[in-house]
Backbone:
């Protein structure tokens, strides 16, 4: 299915996309994860098309974010053995990837949260591979670009939080009503879900399974998993007052974090239509109609 | 609803925010105050965190609902929404990094743009345990606090120095403002609704009672 170095991959994925989707949803074998992630995210192609670029960014360029990055290095997965050693290989790679990205896109630069993406990737691939996967995600090689999570104003975070709010009300009306009454807002619990794609505070074995699907299917799975968590804990959550609710939303019980329970529940939740509608609603609310005023003028 | 209030009884609920540059120790100040914990291996805060603690001020139980915010400037797009309704703020800098003290002015402006004029602000110089690395003198910070009419304290979340004092002082001052205001309008402070943040806004001016708090040297 994959072939040596991924050579058969493109052929296979074109012929049997549903087989690939089904098998990825069951979890990518750990020994293949690094390679498959690079194939499904499109980062392998970016790497091959840009030889020497990463080295250039790491060695010859300087970044305005260097101090910010250094300060966060020891605060990224601090209890993971790979990143624990001060100035060890894990921390050095993490620094290089983040610095390279902050030079690659100076406008975005370095934003807290990126380190968790890069850190997770570095557990499965080399620095250069991790860098290109980060580029593939943020610049949108296969799916919609995610750089809006990190741009000034965090526009995509705001949009996703709005969409999640609406989806909770649609899929879990009783909980949505309870959230409204207790004045719970998604930014109180879900910012990290989007900004770090569940890698910030969720157990690795769950985060990895989410990432398998995320890289193949896109950000939709983040909404699905979020809704599945809320659904799984629904009856408890609807009983809790504000403070306990916030605590519960940041500390889901172990049984809820079991990928073999949570993910099938997530797959069963349909969000495509809801995401499209809420995106349009959000854009309308924020004065964007999908086309710029100039284009509208020309159309008149 | 009544069931959970029983073990959670308080007279006042105050919303307090923790702000300041990234890496100055806001999250550890919060965990030290609310759980008496400190971690050298803490993650950088993404978005906002939340914790509470109740303390006794005079003869009243005051509950602090504390929002800890990500320090990186880009995150203000999310975090500034949390300033709304805050009646107290701990504006934290790192005594070993002068730039974090220089940025206090911008944080102060941010705070004053988004909150009520009567908010109680405490300037907090954290990491006081790193004596050999000190880059901001106590006198400079004290002078700044006096000029800006904020309270001031130096703390160490690691050594648990002055952390309780800093929070307690903020809560005491808020309580003072609220009771004075309640007295002015002839209201019973104990009758204020629970579960809601108390607004200290209005004609009363908290700056009149502000003075620079003590600080450790």
Residues:
């Amino acid at each position: 299915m994959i072939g040596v170095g991924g050579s058969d991959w493109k052929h296979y994925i074109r012929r049997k996309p549903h087989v690939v989707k089904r098998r990825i949803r069951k979890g990518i074998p750990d020994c293949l994860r690094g390679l498959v992630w690079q194939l499904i995210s499109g980062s392998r192609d970016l790497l091959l098309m840009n030889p020497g670029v990463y080295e250039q960014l790491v060695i010859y360029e300087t970044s305005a974010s260097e101090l910010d990055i250094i300060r966060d290095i020891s605060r990224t997965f601090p209890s993971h053995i790979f990143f624990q050693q001060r100035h060890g290989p894990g921390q050095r790679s993490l620094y290089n990837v983040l610095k390279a990205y902050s030079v690659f896109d100076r406008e975005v630069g370095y934003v807290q949260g990126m380190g968790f993406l890069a850190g997770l990737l570095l557990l499965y691939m080399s620095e250069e591979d991790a860098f290109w996967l980060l580029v593939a995600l943020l610049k949108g090689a296969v799916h919609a670009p995610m750089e809006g999570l990190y741009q000034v104003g965090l526009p995509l975070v705001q949009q996703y939080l709005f969409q999640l709010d609406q989806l909770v009300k649609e899929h879990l009306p009783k909980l949505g009503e309870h959230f409204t009454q207790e004045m719970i807002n998604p930014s109180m619990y879900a910012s990290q879900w989007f900004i770090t794609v569940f890698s910030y505070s969720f157990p690795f074995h769950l985060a990895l399974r989410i990432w398998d699907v995320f890289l193949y299917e896109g950000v939709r799975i983040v909404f699905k998993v979020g809704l599945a968590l809320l659904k799984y804990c629904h009856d408890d959550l609807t009983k809790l007052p504000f403070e306990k609710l916030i605590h519960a939303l940041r500390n889901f019980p172990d049984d809820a974090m079991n990928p073999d329970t949570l993910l099938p529940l997530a797959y069963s939740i349909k969000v495509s239509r809801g995401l499209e509608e809420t995106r349009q609603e959000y854009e309308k609310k924020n004065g964007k109609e999908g086309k710029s005023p100039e284009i509208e003028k020309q159309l008149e | 609803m009544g069931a959970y209030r029983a073990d959670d009884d308080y007279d006042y609920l105050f919303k307090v925010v923790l702000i300041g540059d990234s890496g100055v120790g806001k999250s550890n100040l919060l965990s030290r105050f609310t759980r008496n914990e400190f971690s050298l291996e803490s993650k950088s805060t993404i978005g906002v965190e939340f914790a509470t603690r109740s303390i006794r001020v005079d003869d009243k139980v005051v509950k602090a609902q504390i929002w800890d915010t990500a320090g990186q400037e880009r995150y203000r797009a999310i975090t500034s929404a949390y300033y709304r309704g805050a009646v107290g703020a701990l504006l934290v800098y790192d005594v070993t990094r002068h730039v974090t003290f220089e940025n206090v002015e911008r944080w102060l402006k941010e705070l004053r743009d988004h909150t009520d004029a009567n908010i109680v602000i405490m300037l907090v110089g954290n990491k006081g345990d790193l004596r050999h690395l000190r880059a901001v003198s106590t006198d400079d910070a004290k002078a700044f606090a006096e000029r800006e009419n904020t309270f001031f304290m130096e703390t160490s979340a690691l050594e648990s120095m002055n952390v309780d004092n800093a929070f307690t002082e903020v809560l005491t001052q808020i309580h003072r403002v609220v009771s004075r205001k309640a007295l002015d309008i002839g209201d019973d402070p104990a009758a204020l609704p629970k579960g809601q943040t108390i607004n200290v806004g209005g004609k009363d001016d908290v700056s009149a009672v502000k003075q620079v708090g003590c600080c450790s040297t």
